[in-house]
Structure formats: structure tokens, C-alpha cells
UniProtKB/TrEMBL annotation:
<feature type="active site" description="Proton acceptor">
    <location>
        <position position="207"/>
    </location>
</feature>
<keyword id="KW-0560">Oxidoreductase</keyword>
<dbReference type="GO" id="GO:0006108">
    <property type="term" value="P:malate metabolic process"/>
</dbReference>
<dbReference type="InterPro" id="IPR012302">
    <property type="entry name" value="Malic_NAD-bd"/>
</dbReference>
<keyword id="KW-0479">Metal-binding</keyword>
<feature type="active site" description="Proton donor">
    <location>
        <position position="136"/>
    </location>
</feature>
<dbReference type="InterPro" id="IPR015884">
    <property type="entry name" value="Malic_enzyme_CS"/>
</dbReference>
<dbReference type="InterPro" id="IPR037062">
    <property type="entry name" value="Malic_N_dom_sf"/>
</dbReference>
<dbReference type="GO" id="GO:0051287">
    <property type="term" value="F:NAD binding"/>
</dbReference>
<dbReference type="InterPro" id="IPR036291">
    <property type="entry name" value="NAD(P)-bd_dom_sf"/>
</dbReference>
<protein>
    <recommendedName>
        <fullName>Malic enzyme</fullName>
    </recommendedName>
</protein>
<dbReference type="Pfam" id="PF00390">
    <property type="entry name" value="malic"/>
</dbReference>
<dbReference type="GO" id="GO:0046872">
    <property type="term" value="F:metal ion binding"/>
</dbReference>
<dbReference type="GO" id="GO:0009507">
    <property type="term" value="C:chloroplast"/>
</dbReference>
<feature type="binding site">
    <location>
        <position position="279"/>
    </location>
    <ligand>
        <name>a divalent metal cation</name>
    </ligand>
</feature>
<feature type="domain" description="Malic enzyme N-terminal">
    <location>
        <begin position="113"/>
        <end position="294"/>
    </location>
</feature>
<feature type="binding site">
    <location>
        <position position="444"/>
    </location>
    <ligand>
        <name>(S)-malate</name>
    </ligand>
</feature>
């Protein structure tokens, strides 16, 4: 073999391409690359000493034992004390609690994730109720808004228009190979905060940390991606610290072609079974992307489908408190976009399956209001396609209050992204014709919630059943404590993803979402109901996720869409055994 490295590389490629590989296939797919396609030269080495301490996957900080310090050239690089992971956790939680500004906690947690991954996940798992609002909504929203200035080390993969024609190569730059879940955004509708362009990266990073902490997916199998096609946010375009492309968003053919290149590259690089979760795309792309790729890829839109599944779960659970079946309700939504119409459609499907009524009929119990008022048949021609099934016969109504008084809903759901829209009059109206009005203020972050928990309870004199997208603290009203629930898709996507992965699913179907809803609803206990909750607390979320995964897995096998055969007998056990544990490993 030549000593010229280029020559070696060429020999290697041509040898492999000729198929003389000793029967061993190239798992990285580089055999399939054309000769003129550039490949990344991967090197695998054993980390020790300083490099080991700087690798977040293996770093244990002061928890390295004397034996490990000796064997891995760490002696002297650390102070002499040896701390257990539990003591490290206690210390880190103590440090975090010193910060009074939530964003400072966020930055400290991101630093920890980059320094010591296992400790980060142990903290998150053991203190989920306390830390969820930091790594996720509401704080992640503020983090995205200020991403340019808090940005230290890049996380995730940035794919911008500059990489057009080379997306496959960019994917190959990511250091991990066995990717199982990708969360991708183009940053155009970040929570209810609008277009944050490239700074939306906080969302895929946060969602994937929940895939690991709540659903047990290995961190190395998770890939956060931000597609940067520009931004229409003038403030960002004029910000000298903005981290993304300073140009207006690509649209039309240019956008579609770029996304198509991305989806093809993902499948080529990671195969058929990688789950792609679309997150926080604007609705003018979200519905189209989902319908375009749902029959060729394992794709899932969290805002449309995950939100639908979590809300349906709450409604199924609420049947016990309200003594009413789903078909007895009348639903009114403020907001007719991804979340609103996604939820509406899954409710209609569930009622249709339960009662045997055609879905066109079950839709008639569901009404939606958008920025122009109640969606009614006289508006049909001018409506976006995802709103059209909800255009029922009714005279036009401009305002929410008018719609509430006209429709008299039993359930009011906010998915508008606009805060304070469930006014006192609206909530009081709900309380006049419902003994127990069910009010869901789903918009995130907290600043965009349609009403607060306190408002919901006081304006209904303590009769509301309330849940919100971002968490609210318990409320004292007339000597009684009310516990607001959190209706957020993070109850669903980690368990759903685990179920899809463990069964080797190749497609996502509505029946899997329904299975996830039933599984989540079945986890609400009598004690939770007594507290006024329609969702179980997050403290047991890994157990909940295992149950959701088992139900989704069972449905995947039933539908013939599972590729991990034969089907394991006990799917809950299977799910639990698949889950990542953040406990430190011992090094030889
Ligand atoms: N809790 C959870 O798990 C989730 C919460 N969400 C939250 O839901 C919100 C909406 O998300 P999404 O559905 O994706 O967004 P979309 O942009 O797809 O939809 C927003 C909808 O709200 C309507 N709207 C906007 N302003 C008003 C207003 N002043 N009065 C009445 N309607 C209005 C829009 O009307 P028009 O069509 O006329 O423009 C549109 O129909 C966001 O805040 C998001 O964070 C989303 C997913 C999950
Ligand atoms: C929770 C979520 O996905 C959203 O607000 O967009
Ligand atoms: Mg979202």
C-alpha cells in the first residue's frame, strides 16, 4: 500500500466499491457514495487524561475513582476528593437553586450538559418537576429569544441554505452514527413567540433532552437539527449578534426543494427507521411536510399530532370527573392552526370510532375561532385547507365572547399563541352554563397562555378543571388549594418515540396516537382526580412513558408496521429495559 494518504484513501474506496470487502458491509453507507462525493475521515481512539475529562459522554468530574484516575492518566488533573454521583447531584441542585433568574439556571444546565452528560440527565430525571420549566417551556422560549447572546458552544446540527446540494455531507459531520430520533425545526413558529430563525435551535435541543430524560432514548441516538432558510424577523436581521443567515426566508419551490434534499439525505444516511419529529414549523409548511413525507418516512409532527394526543388523553381522563362521554361535549377552540385543528381532528376520530358515527358528523360538535372569528360555512372558500372541515353552518361571529355565548361549549381550548385572550367575561360565560367548565390554555410560553390558573379558578369560583401548556403553581382560592395540570405534548412524544423505536416502526398512524392517549389517560389515579387533575404528575413520567411506549408498540405490531420481530411478549418490560440510565459506568 502506498504511503501517500490520498492514495490509501482512494485504494480503500475503490476496493470497497468493487465489492471485495470480505463480506463485511460498510455500515456508514460510504460504499454507496459516488467517487467524487466527499466523505469525512472518521477516527476512533480511546480517550484518556485531559481529553477524557473534556468529553461530556464519559466525564464524571470528581466521581472518577482512584483506580480510574490511575488507569486513565487523570491523577493530578483533579483535586483529591472523590464524590459520589448523588453528592454531585446534591451540590449541582444547590448551586442551581442559588440562581433566581430562570435563564441563568438554563445556562447553568446547558453548561452541565456540555460538561457531564450523565450528571445532567440524572439531575433532570430525579428533579423533573423542578427542572422541566427550565430546559423546556417557559424558559427555553426566553433562551431562544436570546440565543445569540447566551450562545457558547454550538449544540445540534445547523443546515443552512449555504449547504444546498451537500446536506448528506453535513449529516456525516455529526459525530454519532446510530441516530434514532431527529427533532428538526426551521424556527418559523417557536412556541407562541413567532419567527426566531436559527435561534430556534433551543427547541430541538430541549425536546431531545426530554426524549432522553422522560422517554429513555440514549442521548447519542438523538440529533437536534435546525434548518436555516433565513428569517423574516426584522429584529434578528438587524442584530449584529444574530447567529443565522441574514436574509429573508426562502419560500415556494426553493423551500420545498431544500426540505426534500434534507428528507432524502436523512433516509439515505440513517435508513428507514429513524424518527423525524417536525417541531415548530409555521402551519403553511407543517401540514404539507407531514402529508408529503408520512408515507415514505417515519415522521411525526409534534405540534399537530403530539398535542392532539395529549389533549385527547386529558379529555378521556376528564370523563370520570365530569361523568360525560366525549360525544356529550361541545368543543370550542380559540386558534385554528396546527395545534387547534390537529386536536380537533383526533377528537372527532376518537368519537367516530367510539360511536360508529361518520367523522363528518362527529366534527359538527367541534367549533374553531381564528383571527377572523368563528369558522363558518360562509367563509369556506377563503379558508386554508386544514380549516375547511370545521366550517359549519352558523351566522358569522367576530369575537370569542360572542362565539362562546352562541355555541355554549362545555370545553374551551386555547391554541392561539396569544396571551390573555380568555378574558374574565369569556371564563365567566363558561361558568354560567357549565357546572364544571373544562378550560385548557395551551399556548406557550407562560406569557402567551390564554389565561392563568388563578384567573381560571377565581373567575369560575373554583369550579374549573384547568390545564395549561406551560406550568402554573398551585392556587389558593377560598381556603382550598387547586392544582393546575400541564397539558403539554411532552407527556406523549417521549413514550411514543420509544414505542416506535423499540418496535422498529416504519410509519406513524393515527391509531398509534389514539393508543398513546388511552395509555396516558389510564395513568391518572383517583388521587389525581381528587386534586382536580386530568394528567398524572411528572414525577412518574418514565413509568408513564414506558406504558405509552408499550401501547404504541402493540399498535405498531397489530398494524403490521413493526420491523423488530418477533414481537416481545411483555412490551412494558421491553420498554423499561430499553431505557437509558444516567448512572455512571465504571471504566476498566
Ligand atoms: N401545550 C402544548 O403542548 C402545545 C402548545 N402549542 C401552542 O399553541 C400555540 C399555537 O400553535 P400552532 O397551532 O402551532 O400555531 P398556528 O400559527 O398554526 O395557529 C395559531 C392559530 O391562532 C389563531 N390566532 C392568532 N391570533 C389570534 C387571535 N388574536 N384571536 C383568535 N385567533 C388567533 C390563528 O388565526 P389565523 O389562522 O387566522 O392566523 C391560527 O389559527 C402556540 O403558542 C404554541 O406554543 C402548540 C403545540 C403544543
Ligand atoms: C409544546 C410545543 O410543542 C409548543 O408549544 O410548540
Ligand atoms: Mg412545538
Amino acid at each position: 500500500m502506498s504511503s501517500n494518504p490520498t492514495q490509501i484513501s482512494d485504494d480503500y474506496v475503490s476496493e470497497n466499491r468493487s465489492g471485495v470487502g470480505g463480506g463485511i458491509s460498510d455500515v456508514y453507507g460510504e460504499d454507496l457514495a459516488t467517487l467524487d462525493q466527499l466523505v469525512t475521515p472518521w477516527v476512533t481512539s480511546v480517550a484518556s487524561g485531559y481529553t477524557l475529562m473534556r468529553d461530556p459522554r464519559y466525564n464524571k468530574g470528581l466521581a472518577f475513582t482512584d483506580k480510574e484516575r490511575d488507569a486513565h492518566y487523570l491523577t493530578g488533573l483533579l483535586p483529591p476528593v472523590i464524590l459520589s454521583q448523588d453528592v454531585q447531584e446534591k451540590k449541582m441542585m444547590h448551586n442551581l437553586r442559588q440562581y433566581t433568574v430562570p435563564l441563568h439556571r438554563y445556562v447553568a444546565l446547558m453548561d452541565l450538559q456540555e460538561r457531564n452528560e450523565r450528571l445532567f440527565y440524572k439531575l433532570l430525571i430525579d428533579n423533573v418537576e423542578e427542572l422541566l420549566p427550565v430546559v423546556y417551556t417557559p424558559t427555553v422560549g426566553e433562551a431562544c429569544q436570546k440565543y445569540g447572546s447566551i450562545f457558547r458552544r454550538p449544540q445540534g446540527l445547523y443546515i443552512s441554505l449555504k449547504e444546498k446540494g451537500k446536506i448528506l455531507e453535513v449529516l456525516k459531520n455529526w459525530p454519532q452514527r446510530g441516530i434514532q430520533v431527529i427533532v428538526v425545526t426551521d424556527g418559523e413558529r417557536i412556541l407562541g413567540l413567532g419567527d426566531l430563525g436559527c435561534q430556534g435551535m433551543g427547541i430541538p435541543v430541549g425536546k431531545l433532552s426530554l426524549y432522553t430524560a422522560l422517554g429513555g432514548i440514549r442521548p447519542s441516538a438523538c440529533l437536534p437539527i435546525t434548518i436555516d432558510v433565513g428569517t423574516n424577523n426584522e429584529k434578528l436581521l438587524n442584530d449584529e449578534f444574530y447567529i443565522g443567515l441574514k436574509q429573508k426566508r426562502a419560500t415556494g419551490e426553493e423551500y420545498a426543494e431544500f426540505l426534500h434534499e434534507f428528507m432524502c439525505a436523512v433516509k439515505q444516511n440513517y435508513g428507514e427507521k429513524v424518527l423525524v419529529q417536525f417541531e415548530d414549523f409555521a402551519n403553511h409548511h407543517a401540514f404539507e411536510l407531514l402529508s408529503k413525507y408520512c408515507s415514505s418516512h417515519l415522521v411525526f409532527n409534534d405540534d399537530i399530532q403530539g398535542t392532539a394526543s395529549v389533549v385527547l388523553a386529558g379529555l378521556i381522563a376528564a370523563q370520570k370527573v365530569l361523568g360525560k362521554s366525549l360525544s356529550d361535549h361541545t368543543f370550542l377552540f380559540l386558534g385554528a392552526g396546527e395545534a387547534g385543528t390537529g386536536i380537533a381532528e383526533l377528537i372527532a376520530l376518537k368519537i367516530s370510532k367510539e360511536t360508529g358515527t361518520p367523522i363528518d358528523e362527529t366534527r359538527k360538535k367541534i367549533w374553531l375561532v381564528d383571527s377572523k372569528g368563528l369558522i363558518v360555512s360562509s367563509r369556506k372558500e377563503s379558508l386554508q385547507h386544514f380549516k375547511q372541515p370545521w366550517a359549519h353552518d352558523h351566522e358569522p361571529v367576530k369575537e370569542l365572547l360572542g362565539a362562546v355565548n352562541a355555541i355554549k361549549p362545555t370545553v374551551l381550548i386555547g391554541t392561539s399563541g396569544v396571551g390573555k385572550t380568555f378574558t374574565k367575561e369569556v371564563v365567566e360565560a363558561m361558568a354560567t352554563f357549565n357546572e364544571k367548565p373544562l378550560i385548557l390554555a395551551l399556548s406557550n410560553p407562560t406569557s402567551q397562555a390564554e389565561c392563568t390558573a388563578e384567573e381560571a379558578y377565581t373567575w369560575t369560583e373554583g369550579r374549573a378543571i384547568f390545564a395549561s401548556g406551560s406550568p402554573f403553581a398551585p392556587v389558593e382560592y377560598e381556603g382550598k388549594t387547586f392544582f393546575p395540570g400541564q397539558a403539554n405534548n411532552c407527556y406523549i412524544f417521549p413514550g411514543l418515540g420509544l414505542g416506535l423505536i423499540m418496535s422498529g416502526a416504519i410509519r406513524v398512524r393515527d391509531d398509534m396516537l389514539l393508543a398513546a392517549s388511552e395509555a396516558l389517560a389510564s395513568q391518572v389515579t383517583e388521587e389525581n382526580f381528587a386534586d382536580g387533575l386530568i394528567y398524572p404528575p411528572f414525577t412518574n413520567i418514565r413509568k408513564i412513558s414506558a406504558n405509552i411506549a408499550a401501547s404504541v408498540g402493540a399498535k405498531t405490531y397489530e398494524l403490521g408496521l413493526a420491523s423488530n420481530l418477533p414481537r416481545p411478549k411483555d412490551l412494558v418490560k421491553m420498554a423499561e429495559s430499553c431505557m437509558y440510565s444516567p448512572v455512571y459506568r465504571n471504566f476498566r
